[in-house]
Amino acid sequence: MRHFIDLLDWDGDSLRKLLDDALRMKRARRRGKDLPVKPRRVLGLIFEKPSLRTRVSFQAAMAHLGGASVFLSNHEVGLGQRESLPDVARTVSQFVDAVVLRTFKHETVVEFAAHAACPVINGLSDYSHPCQALGDLLTMREQSGDLAGKTVVFVGDGNNVARSLAIGCGKLGVRFVLSAPKGYGFDDRFLRTYCEFVPDGDLTEEPAPAKAVKQADVIYTDVWASMGQENETKKRHRDFAPYQVNAALMRQAPAHAKFMHCLPAHRGEEVTNEVIDSPASLVFPQAGNRMHAQKALLKWIFAERQ
Ligand code: CP
Ligand code: NVA
Question: Which ligand is nearest to the CA of 55?
Answer without folding.
Answer: 1
